[in-house]
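Re: beginner question about structure tokens

> Can someone show what the tokenized structure looks like for a real chain? I only ever see the sequence side.

Sure, here's an example I had lying around. Input first:
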Amino acid sequence: MEFETLVQSRRSVRGFKQQPVPRAVVEAIIESAKRAPSSMNTQPWHVHVLTGSPLEEVRRRNMDEMIGGAKVKRDIISHGEYQGVHRSRQVDIAKKLFGAMGIARDDKPMRQDWVLRGFRQFDAPVSLVLTYDRVLDPGAVCHFDLGALCYGIVLAAWDRGLGSVINGQGIMRSDIVREVAKIPEDEVIMTCVAMGYPDDNFAANAVRSEREGNDEFVRYVGFAD
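And the corresponding structure tokens:
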């Protein structure tokens, strides 16, 4: 698939078929994605691929902790709640998703269930937990590299018929993820990618988020025209 077509067609998938993803497919995805740009070829990343009972334990304990009112315990520093234009964009996609799923504004049980789906990594059959070497903290450069790898994973997966959603809710309790997946202390857990074969009957999978026009965030400097 040509790159532009691949990017334009890719979407976040929030409903998955309960169909196993072969290890060989995940290996091929990572093999492609690891060609992502890396500052001075430092390759600060690690990928921990979870499926089966370990993944089920992570999502069960993560969900139980968050339902029980436990505080978020992520390795990376959070910006807190979104405000202003960032909050507006967050609300806009939430409205689209709730509309597609038929979740009314005052339907608190269904809205809560949607939040819990995030804590369960949307019940995807595979989760790729992305980490980087702690010795590189603090620093945005390794975060940038992880972002490049992450997007490479998402595009390589889509090219092979798999959907994904980059999902911070699934690692709200990074301590649980670290314990179950046996992730070394010298690695920082940044995010995870929930992955599987898309369920085309899941209404939210058809939702596409809006993007601002280029004139809202792009400046051209020094061009004659």
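Each token stands for a local structural state, so reading them left to right follows the chain. The longest helix spans residues 140-159.
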